[in-house]
From TrEMBL:
This is Uncharacterized protein. The lineage of its organism: Bacteria, Bacillati, Actinomycetota, Actinomycetes, Kitasatosporales. Coiled coil: none annotated. Keywords: Membrane, Transmembrane, Transmembrane helix. Residues 165-186 are annotated as: Disordered. Residues 165-180 have a biased composition (Basic and acidic residues). The chain crosses the membrane at residues 27-51, 79-96, 103-124, 144-163, 195-212, 240-261, 273-293, 313-333. It comes from Streptomyces inhibens.
Length: 350
């Protein structure tokens, strides 16, 4: 509400533009149910790992941010912990019918599908298949993998068609408003989106560069590394925690794809940008904590490689923080950014 010339002008839109259209309500509810169920499954595995481990609950909580304090025999790893929280948040947003949940849900579904495909490739190995029968937890592990596949397929099936057009002819995918509202929330988002795109793309290229550097300088078997990206049997053990090869490849891929989409000013990637930036920020904070408690900061600049590694970590911390801030910026207030346009319209008509 805005007071003008002694009167009151209501500049609020008739409908909340941040809320999904009524015809997509079922898709959002199905997504909330699926992601909530899978998050609950991961939480159950986390509790089991704490109960069966040598450390206490406090050791686990400390290990969430300090890799050196994390018990070695945890069932899940930091990627799974962070995405468990992400699944719960996305499920809550989907339950509230918030449109920002769509791209975040699609991102997590694609990652779940990639994990499932990798596990499926591993099942072609007879020795790996036998472990599911011989391991006491093999059945539960396989059921968790199967649930992940079902969740991924359901979320993709219901959310991919749930596209919408914003009022006034603005496409929810691009955020373009045919040149109207220059300097308004839509224009602000396009600028912010491109900044996020640059930050994500540079981070993806930096991480790709480090991956290639490690392959070339550590004597690592390149074929085995690439196989570890797509084949779950490479490690030779049943493990719900993602391998380093897979997480590196997935991170580079997501950073580059989202970076390109954000550079194009697509509004519908906002949720995906926010979720993945938050996950990357958490993992970077863990790295910074580890560098601090081990005293590695004192020797980071002794070599060129160490200095570059420290610079990459500092950039990741700043870039991911910036993306989180920009993706939750003023263009996405309680009125979905339309309030500012309505205010200018009211003032212009005075």
């Amino acid at each position: 509400m805005v007071m003008q010339d002694g009167g009151t002008v209501d500049v609020r839109p008739g409908a909340d533009p941040g809320r999904a259209a009524a015809e997509h309500s079922g898709a959002y509810l199905a997504t909330a149910l699926c992601l909530g169920l899978y998050a609950g499954t991961l939480l159950a595995w986390t509790v089991y790992g704490i109960a069966q481990g040598d450390g206490s609950t406090w050791d686990f909580l400390e290990g969430l941010f300090n890799p050196g304090a994390s018990p070695a025999n945890q069932v899940l790893g930091p990627y799974e912990w962070s995405f468990t929280v992400a699944f719960l948040v996305i499920a809550g947003l989907a339950l509230a019918q918030r449109r920002v949940a769509r791209s975040a849900a699609l991102l997590t579904a694609c990652l779940l599908l990639a994990v499932s495909v990798r596990e499926g490739v591993g099942l072609f190995d007879a020795a790996y298949r036998a472990q599911y029968s011989n391991d006491p937890l093999g059945g539960w592990t396989l059921a968790t993998r199967g649930l992940g596949l079902v969740v991924a397929l359901v979320v993709l099936a219901v959310m991919l068609p749930a596209t919408e057009r914003r009022p006034g002819g603005r496409d929810s995918r691009t955020g373009h408003d045919d040149g109207r509202g220059a300097g308004g929330p839509e224009s602000w988002w396009r600028r912010s989106s491109r900044i996020c795109g640059v930050l994500f793309t540079l981070m993806g290229l930096a991480r790709l560069g480090w991956a290639v550097h490690d392959l070339m300088t550590t004597g690592m078997d390149k074929g085995n590394y690439l196989r570890g990206v797509v084949d779950g049997s490479v490690l030779g053990t049943l493990d719900l925690a993602a391998s380093a090869e897979f997480t590196t490849a997935a991170s580079v891929t997501v950073l580059l794809i989202l970076g390109v989409l954000a550079l194009r000013g697509r509004r519908d990637v906002r949720g995906a940008l926010l979720v993945f930036a938050a996950v990357e920020l958490y993992l970077t904070v863990r790295t910074v904590v580890w560098l601090t408690v081990t005293g590695s900061f004192n020797h980071s600049f002794d070599t060129t490689e160490g200095a570059l590694s420290m610079a990459t970590t500092a950039y990741a911390l700043a870039a991911m923080t910036s993306v989180v801030v920009l993706a939750t910026g003023r263009g996405f207030g309680p009125y979905g950014g339309v309030r500012a346009e309505g205010l200018r319209t009211a003032r212009g008509g005075a």
